[in-house]
Design the sequence.
C-alpha cells in the first residue's frame, strides 16, 4: 500500500471563499474590468500551436519600461506564487532556516513547510508594525538563511520605510525576499525595484494581480541582481508563462497611461473606503489601521458576526479571527458595504 509522505498527510488545499456573491471585497483584486475587445486584439496573433517564449522577452521589456527597470534583471513567473515556490525550493536546502513575519501572507510559510525548511516565525509588534532591529538580530543570531515578507503588508495594510529595508539588506548575509505586491498603492519612491541589482542578497517580487488588474492572467515578476536572475531563469520550468498571458499582458502593460490610470483609480477607491469607515467611527470596529494598499484592515472582536452578516447581504470580505480585511471596490460597492454596516445589529 502506498503511503503519503508525512508533509502531505495533513496538507489541505488553499480554500478561498466559495459561492456566488454580488460584491467580492475579499481577494484584493482590482475592481476595474478589462475591455473584452482590447483583450481580443491583444491575443489575436498568439500562436497556440507553438510553445511560448521561455524568457518572455517582449513582456519583460514592456514591464521594465513601465517601471524603468533593466529587463536583464527581471524574471517572469506564473504568478508570484510560482516565483515564491521556486525560490523556497531551489535557493534553500532542506532543513535550512527561513524567517517569516506574523501576520503576513500565508503562502510564504506554506511553501517553506512544503519544501521542508526550518520555518521560524517572528511576531510583529502589538500595533502590527515591524521592528527592523529585531528582525536583523533574529536573522544574525539564529543563522537564518532567508527572510520573506510582504511590503506593504498583506494583511495589515502597513508599509515598512525604504530606509529600513535597506538597513535590513545591508545588515544580514541572508537572502531577503521582499514581496512588493501592493507597492503600486503606496508609491515607487518606497520601492526597492530600481536598486535590486545593487544587492547580491535581494529579490523583489511584483505582481500584475493587484493594481494592474490582471489577476486572471496569473503573472508575476522577480527583480534581482545578475547572478540570482540567472539562476532563477535556470530553475523555473522552460515555458512557465503561457502565450496568451504573455500576449495580453504585454499589450496592456505597454500602455503606461492606462496602467497609471488604473493605479490611481484604485488608490482613490481605497481612500474613499477608509474615509467612509473612519468618519462613521463604528463602535464595533476597535482599530482601523492606516492603509497604503488597496484594502483596509480592521481589528474587531465581532469579526465573525460582521463577516457572516455581510455574506448574508451578498457581500464577501476576508475574515481573519479578530480582524477583517476589506478590499476597496468601486463607488457602488463601497456604498452597498456602508449601507449594510449601518444596519449591523
Sequence:
Amino acid at each position: 500500500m502506498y503511503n503519503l509522505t508525512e508533509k502531505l498527510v495533513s496538507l489541505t488545499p488553499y480554500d478561498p471563499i466559495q459561492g456566488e456573491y454580488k460584491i467580492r471585497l475579499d481577494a484584493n483584486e482590482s475592481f476595474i474590468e478589462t475591455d473584452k475587445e482590447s483583450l481580443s486584439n491583444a491575443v489575436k496573433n498568439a500562436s497556440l500551436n507553438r510553445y511560448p517564449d521561455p524568457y518572455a522577452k517582449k513582456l519583460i521589456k514592456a514591464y521594465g519600461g513601465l517601471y524603468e527597470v533593466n529587463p536583464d534583471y527581471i524574471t517572469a513567473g506564473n504568478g508570484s506564487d510560482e516565483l515564491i515556490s521556486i525560490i523556497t525550493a531551489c535557493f534553500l536546502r532542506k532543513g535550512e532556516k527561513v524567517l517569516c513575519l506574523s501576520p503576513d501572507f500565508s503562502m510564504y510559510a506554506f511553501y517553506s513547510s512544503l519544501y521542508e525548511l526550518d520555518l521560524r516565525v517572528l511576531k510583529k509588534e502589538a500595533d502590527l508594525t515591524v521592528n527592523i532591529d529585531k528582525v536583523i538580530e533574529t536573522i544574525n543570531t539564529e543563522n537564518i538563511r532567508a527572510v520573506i515578507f510582504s511590503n506593504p503588508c498583506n494583511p495589515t495594510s502597513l508599509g515598512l520605510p525604504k530606509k529600513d529595508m535597506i538597513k535590513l539588506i545591508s545588515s544580514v548575509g541572508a537572502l531577503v525576499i521582499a514581496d512588493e505586491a501592493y507597492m503600486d498603492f503606496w508609491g515607487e519612491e518606497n520601492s526597492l525595484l530600481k536598486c535590486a541589482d545593487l544587492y547580491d542578497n535581494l529579490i523583489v517580487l511584483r505582481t500584475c494581480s493587484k493594481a494592474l488588474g490582471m489577476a486572471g492572467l496569473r503573472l508575476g515578476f522577480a527583480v534581482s541582481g545578475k547572478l540570482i536572475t540567472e539562476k532563477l531563469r535556470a530553475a523555473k520550468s522552460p515555458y512557465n508563462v503561457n502565450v496568451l498571458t504573455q500576449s495580453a499582458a504585454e499589450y496592456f502593460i505597454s500602455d503606461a497611461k492606462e496602467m497609471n490610470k488604473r493605479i490611481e483609480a484604485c488608490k482613490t477607491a481605497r481612500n474613499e473606503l477608509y474615509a467612509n469607515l473612519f468618519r462613521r467611527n463604528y463602535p464595533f470596529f476597535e482599530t482601523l489601521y492606516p492603509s497604503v494598499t488597496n484594502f483596509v484592515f480592521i481589528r474587531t472582536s465581532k469579526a465573525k458576526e460582521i463577516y457572516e452578516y455581510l455574506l448574508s447581504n451578498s457581500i464577501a470580505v476576508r475574515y481573519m479571527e479578530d480582524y477583517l480585511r476589506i478590499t476597496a471596490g468601486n463607488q457602488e460597492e463601497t456604498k452597498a458595504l456602508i449601507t449594510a454596516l449601518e444596519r449591523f445589529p
